[in-house]
Specification:
Oligomer: single chain
Strand order of the largest sheet: 2-1-5-7
Number of strands: 8
Shape: elongated
Distance between the termini: 29 Å
Length: 170
């Protein structure tokens, strides 16, 4: 390998795009777009960066307060996901997770994510990281009978259920 002291292990491989759109009760439209980022792979000299966008992306996380003030969405959790980084002398970065609740009665969820089939590789004896998931475990009980990992490209109607939530992990 060329420059082994400079090459880092694979990171998240791209972000997960979440779009939630619909109408308020007065028929005024809204759209919320978010990109949840994973983490960087381990570097030959240090752990990977936690909850950070890919090095070629220019992104930052939305503020929970601004999101909740400007959109009919509540964020129920925004936290690092422990034990998901690849193990090794230096571990990969830890991804973050967001749990969303849709607070209107009419809407659509659209998801675009990658790095589902191939785990981010480790280097120099390090283990691979996890693949991405978008989990609808408790999201919409009228639609999903049991926990379901939504597909890489998903579009579905949001059903109004009190306390509905969608949990995402990068």
């Amino acid at each position: 390998m060329m420059l082994p002291d400079k090459v880092k292990a694979a990171g998240d491989g791209g972000n997960t795009g979440i779009s939630i759109g619909g109408y308020y009760a007065d028929r005024k439209p809204f759209i919320y777009v978010d990109f949840t980022c994973g983490a960087w792979g381990a570097r030959p000299w240090a752990d990977g960066l936690d909850g950070n966008s890919h090095m070629f992306a220019n992104m930052a996380s939305h503020s929970i307060e601004v999101t909740e003030a400007e959109h009919p969405i509540s964020l129920l959790a925004y936290e690092f996901v422990a034990d998901k980084a690849g193990a090794g002398k230096y571990r990969g970065g830890v991804p973050f997770r967001r749990d969303y609740r849709f607070n209107e009665t009419e809407g659509m969820l659209q998801v675009r994510s990658d790095r589902r089939d191939h785990r981010p590789f480790g280097l120099y004896g390090g283990s691979p990281g996890i693949t991405r998931k978008l989990d609808a475990a408790q999201a919409w009980p009228r639609i999903f009978k049991a926990a379901q990992n939504l597909g890489m490209k998903t579009c579905l109607e949001l059903v109004p259920v009190p306390g509905n939530a969608i949990a995402t992990s990068a």
